[in-house]
Amino acid sequence: xxxxxxxxxxxxxxxxxxxxxxxxxxxxxxxxxxxxxxxxxxxxxxxxxxxxxxxxxxxxxxxxxxxxxxxxxxxxxxxxxxxxxxxxxxxxxxxxxxxxxxxxxxxxxxxxxxxxxxxxxxxxxxxxxxxxxxxxxxxxxxxxxxxxxxxxxxxxxxxxxxxxxxxxxxxxxxxxxxxxxxxxxxxxxxxxxxxxxxxxxxxxxxxxxxxxxxxxxxxxxxxxxxxxxxxxxxxxxxxxxxxxxxxxxxxxxxxxxxxxxxxxxxxxxxxxxxxxxxxxxxxxxxxxxxxxxxxxxxxxxxxxxxxxxxxxxxxxxxxxxxxxxxxxxxxxxxxxxxxxxxxxxxxxxxxxxxxxxxxxxxxxxxxxxxxxxxxxxxxxxxxxxxxxxxxxxxxxxxxxxxxxxxxxxxxxxxxxxxxxxxxxxxxxxxxxxxxxxxxxxxxxxxxxxxxxxxxxxxxxxxxxxxxxxxxxxxxxxxxxxxxxxxxxxxxxxxxxxxxxxxxxxxxxxxxxxxxxxxxxxxxxxxxxxxxxxxxxxxxxxxxxxxxxxxxxxxxxxxxxxxxxxxxxxxxxxxxxxxxxxxxxxxxxxxxxxxxxxxxxxxxx
Length: 604
Prior knowledge:
- The chain folds into four domains: 3-45; 100-318 and 534-544, 3-Layer(aba) Sandwich (Aldehyde Dehydrogenase, Chain A, domain 1); 323-510, Aldehyde Dehydrogenase, Chain A, domain 2 (3-Layer(aba) Sandwich), CATH 3.40.309.10; 560-603, no CATH class.
- 43% of the residues lie in helices and 15% in strands.
- The protein contains 19 helices and 20 strands.
- It has a seven-stranded mixed β-sheet, with helices on both faces.
- Helix 5 (142-153) packs across helix 6 (157-183), helix 6 runs parallel beside helix 7 (218-231) and helix 14 packs parallel to helix 15 (491-499).
């Protein structure tokens, strides 16, 4: 029995258990059975699963003494191209990073390519060992990784733990447990005419792939593509954002350290940062076989145009305007749902591609939600040691304030926040007040544009019907994620889930499809293609189709019959013969197949 079979069996058992008088029986049995039986199956199906990971050390980044960049305006040399790195929460100067040049990009790709030639020949067992060792390092050094992320991006330690560590540990563990199954050669069916053939799809490495990642989760966004790329047998070059490049060298060393611990070439993994005018050299480089892009739609247009010059395939994740749809049947569960809405909206100061950007509530629960959420949002405190951290810069502050002002001018009510915040301890930090905007309508810009900030918006559905809720949910051009809340037995819940236009939907929860390694990506303005899960791993491979003789050792092979051989003796006779072949293979009844046999015999 495979692990997937076990899970399906437990799911059926869980459904049956819900019929019992003890309401929570299924929820107690499910994890217990999965843990015990799944552990036994893993022991026998992955004999290397229990191999002890190696421990290694990576030099910690240098934490400079506190210097406010505004206090030292001359710290950057005139005319220097170096990138100035600072903590957006405090304006603490972190240091300088030299951007890559085209020549540097050439070297990085060449080094990765050389290492990849050997790495492509490694077994899945060897790759799992590297990932398991990397996972051990992440678990052993959670605080340091989170601290570095917090300093580079301005997020709180809790937000770093959830958005950097938890999801990275999950990606590592999923790949260790299930990656080989996704990339194992896949047998495919044949047909009547080709019954003497056997068909297989092999998932082979592409070579060197690249990822251009965003700044909101500097550790996870860098390590995530590395995990998938190297498990698929590729080398990788990750271009990090200039907003959070201070941490990139340390995070890259974590991946490289795991390779070194197992005697592999660390040059397999490369990271770099460059100014926008140089990025096009990477995205059109003939040494790159695949691009993963995480960022904005306008930048994606440039990336896709550049990649088209050398026909590099692109997977694009462009953010979203994710809706949380609250049905009337969720009324008894609002206390729990409010907690999810708060975390889903304000984690990482709202700088989350699958953050909740719109709360769409049915009429029966709308007013109660507003009453419950208003004091919660007003009570949020700003600061690295408080509830909501800083934003990565103040570049979007004017835009966010403009969106709020526009909504209020059109009838929305501003119940909290709505403007930038001057922190008493760090007045030059980049903080935006946690915002609650209610009575938002689809004609307002804030209902259609991605905020990517700590802004909670509520829209009241005109009615409780699925069509009314879906009209609001599907209004923006984005379609990344969504969540729907209601009673499991509510038929409207399923209608909304299946009618919503998104790449992933969480039922009575928030963004959990990302935390279990389902294929991740969006539709419409949110991009195309998928990373994560089986589809993501396979997307980093060349799916090579191989068709071979099943009984070649018996001499059973394809032979061109006389009527079809060149030079063709008779077009008329040859056509009737080949018509017979088609009838034998594809006629829908025995009479049709029989007439095909007659054609073949008479004209063969």
